[in-house]
Design goal:
302 residues, alpha/beta, TIM Barrel, two-stranded antiparallel sheet, 4 helices, globular
Length: 302
C-alpha cells in the first residue's frame, strides 16, 4: 500500500456535478483552518481565535450539527473510524468491532421518471455478501445510493417512494445508522431536501442520518443549511480517475459548511489531510479490501 503523507496543503479530488448530470473530476487545494502554517506566537493565537469564533458562529446555527470538528449527539454513539464496502465482495472479518464500524451498500435506488403518469422507481439490493466480524457489537451503517435519470420530472411522489425504500434499509436488524449517497445536481437539490425530510420522519428518532457530500458542497457551493441530517461527509478523494483534473483555488475549497466539519471520507491510495485528526473517518478502498490491507489502513488513522 502506498504511504500517505499528511501536509498543511492537501491536494485531493471531488466530483463536481453540473446541472446536466455530468460529473466532472476536479482537483482542489484545501487549506485546513485548524492548521498553523507558519511558526510564531502571533499565528498560533490567530489560529485559536479563529477556532473560537467559528465554533460560536456554527453553534448558533443548529444545535445538533457538527461545530469545529465535534459530531452530533447521535453520531457520538458510533466509532470514529468506518470502513466503506460497496459493490465488491469483501472480507472484513479482521475488523475490530470494538472501535471500527462498517458502512455497507444496502441498495441502489433508481429514479427513472414516469410512465403514463406513474413514477418509475426501482430498488436494487446489493448482491455481494460481506464477511463480517463474528461480534454482536459490530456497528453497521446501511448505505443507500440514489441514481436519478437526468432531465426527468422530480415529483413529491417519487421523493416519498425513495424515502420509504431507504427507510427499509434503516429498519434492518442490527443497523445502527443510515447513510445516503446522492450526487444531486443544482436542479435536483430541492427534491433531495424533500426526500431527506420525508426519510427523517420514517426513521427511528435516535438513529443517525448521514449523507455523503461533494467537496464543493462543503466549501463555496453551500446549499445544505438546515438539512435534517447529522453529518455530511466530504469526499476528499478522486472519484473518477480517468478524468483530467482541473485546478481550483486554495480559498475556494476551504471547508465552510458546519455539517462537513466533523467527518471526512478518504481513500486508501491518495494523500490524507493533516486535519483528519479529531474527525470521524470513512475509509474507501481504491482497490478493494482484498488488495488494500484493512487492518493496516485503520491503524494508519489511529
Amino acid at each position: 500500500m502506498p504511504s500517505r503523507k499528511r501536509g498543511h496543503l492537501f491536494v485531493g479530488y471531488s466530483r463536481l456535478a453540473s446541472d446536466s448530470g455530468f460529473a466532472r473530476s476536479c482537483a482542489f487545494y484545501l487549506t485546513p483552518w485548524l492548521c498553523v502554517k507558519e511558526s510564531g506566537r502571533g499565528m498560533l493565537r490567530a489560529s485559536w481565535m479563529s477556532l473560537v469564533v467559528l465554533t460560536v458562529i456554527c453553534g448558533g446555527m443548529r444545535s445538533h450539527v457538527v461545530t469545529g470538528g465535534v459530531v452530533s449527539k447521535r453520531m457520538q454513539r458510533l466509532p470514529r473510524v468506518t470502513v466503506w464496502a460497496w459493490e465488491r465482495r469483501e472480507d472484513l472479518s479482521a475488523v475490530d468491532s470494538a472501535n471500527t464500524a462498517v458502512a455497507a451498500l444496502d441498495r441502489t435506488i433508481y429514479v427513472e421518471g414516469s410512465v403514463e403518469g406513474a413514477d418509475v422507481v426501482r430498488s436494487v439490493s446489493q448482491k455481494n455478501a460481506l464477511l463480517l466480524p463474528a461480534s454482536a457489537g459490530l456497528v453497521r451503517i446501511a448505505v443507500v445510493r440514489v441514481e436519478m435519470r437526468p432531465g426527468i420530472a422530480m415529483t413529491e411522489s417519487s421523493a416519498n417512494t425513495v424515502a420509504a425504500s431507504a427507510a427499509e434499509a434503516a429498519r434492518v436488524h442490527g443497523v445502527a445508522a443510515l447513510q445516503v449517497d446522492f450526487d444531486a445536481t443544482k436542479s435536483q437539490r430541492d427534491w433531495y431536501r424533500m426526500m431527506l425530510e420525508r426519510l427523517r420522519t420514517k426513521m427511528p428518532a435516535e438513529m443517525p442520518l448521514s449523507i455523503t457530500a461533494l467537496a464543493s458542497w462543503c466549501s463555496y457551493d453551500r446549499w445544505m443549511s438546515e438539512l435534517p441530517v447529522d453529518e455530511a461527509v466530504p469526499m476528499m478523494f478522486r472519484m473518477e480517475p480517468d478524468r483530467a483534473p482541473v485546478a481550483g483555488s486554495e480559498r475556494e475549497m476551504e471547508i465552510r459548511e458546519p455539517l462537513c466539519m466533523g467527518s471526512i471520507g478518504v481513500s486508501t491510495r491518495e494523500p490524507w489531510p493533516q486535519w483528519i485528526s479529531g474527525r470521524r473517518v470513512y475509509l474507501f478502498p481504491d482497490g478493494g479490501w482484498r488488495r488494500d490491507d484493512v487492518v493496516q489502513t485503520i491503524g494508519d488513522v489511529r
